[in-house]
Amino acid sequence: MMPANDRRWEMLENVGAYAAGELAGEEAREVERLMFERPDYRRLAESYTRMLVMLDTLSNEPVEAPVEAVGYAVRRAHVSAFMRNAETFIGALSRSYLDAFVYYLGLRQESYVGGL
Question: Which residues contact 44 (CB under 8 A, 6 or more apart)?
Answer without folding.
Answer: 12, 15
